[in-house]
Amino acid sequence: MSNSFTHALHANFLGHAPEWYKRTILFFLVINPILMWTVGGFITGSVIVVEFIFCLAMALKCYPLQPGGLLAFEAVLIGLTSPATVYHETEANFSVILLLIFMVAGIYFLKDMLLYLFTKILIRIKSKLLLSLIFCFSTALLSAFLDALTVMAVIITVASGFYGVYHKVTSGKDFDAEHDHADDTGIGHETHQDLENFRAFLRNLLMHGAVGTALGGVTTLVGEPQNLLIGQVAGWNFAEFFVRMAPVSMPVLAAGLMTCIAVEKFRILGYGKQMPLAARRILEEYDRREDTKRTHKQRSAIILQAGVALFLVVALAFHWAEVGLIGLAVIVLATALTGVIKEHQLGRAFSEALPFTALLVVFFVVVGVINDQHLFLPTIEFIFTLDMEVQVPVFFLANGLLSAISDNVFVATVYINEINNALQTGGITREHFDALTIAINTGTNIPSVATPNGQAAFLFLLTSALAPLIRLGYGRMVMLALPYTISMTVTGLLAVTYIL
Asked: How many CA atoms lie within 13 A of 132 on its CB side?
């Protein structure tokens, strides 16, 4: 009886995760308190950061919320951080939480219009290289004025729609049939390779789009949350922020777009995958069928959704309210005007965002550990001991490295406050402060594309319901981002060294 009960407890722990994964998490949970009591908080905190990154890397084995949450809970229990610190970090990022809850759900209610628009684009543009460039540039342009998570939610919604249509028909079902998109059992052996190629095709487009959010996000005051923080400390308005960043952000944008062309043309690291002819025929047939059977009610819904999307763009561009509140307005308008009035219809829209929202709050615990244990302080102190002309490129690289393993908003906050203190105490000149500020902003935005940890949009994509369907795991995302990481980082480093 005792053995059966123990076996049941072990079987329930992390559910269907692999046995080796369960044992690894249990080892982490056992070793952390021992480390805390023997080597102290600094080393233990560093170890927990690495463990959390491991959970993110194994997202396809087990959603990171559960193992990451256990590590975070233990970090609080053993005193690496406190509930007050976690609450403070959560409160400081409340606008991001509102965005995830409401904006992602709002985009869900625009999916008919988005699928209609992007299906037309996908069918009419047969050049994969041109299509990739459009995805990269359009997301860069949108991310300069809209939040990157909002832009990412759009392209995830579109890609999910494409995948759902193709997978359903390939499984031998009608366009309107109910279907489990994670079940490949209905797909014949002869079409399985087409499915793998279609997954690779969607992975390519999504990664081009994700990188585009970083290329555009670095350029403007509203492009990323840390940009606004940095601009406020530096006293720069929208126009001045753009001009100050342009010597770095514009060469990096050019490098990013050239990289997009190069990886597609030369099929580097999994890029250059074409849409299978069978998939194109299915999407063309779907488009013709939808055009034929579309009722006046459905056409009016698409038009009204387009109007709500226009409201969204204008409201975000002029910052009429916090992004999350604008998302709530989108939900109200899109549902009220298109007849979505049942509670269960509304509930589906929140299923994508809420797990990631919970994971983000768990991540704030890790940020709290970094803050309370001063894990970044030695790096900051070391940089300030260097010669002044070396500090700018080193700040760029240090911010990039730390942002790739941590939260770029937190990294930017720590560094901008440190150099602002140095300015106020007369340790540096205003001119040097401006150069360091540009290095901090570009450093937290550009090299951080190296990992999903570094960019919220990347992490959102990694933990989305679409990622396992198209086989987009942590390692594959890092490899797909690698050409961009190298070209953008090198270009940014040269710019901050020789142009600033």
From this structure: 28
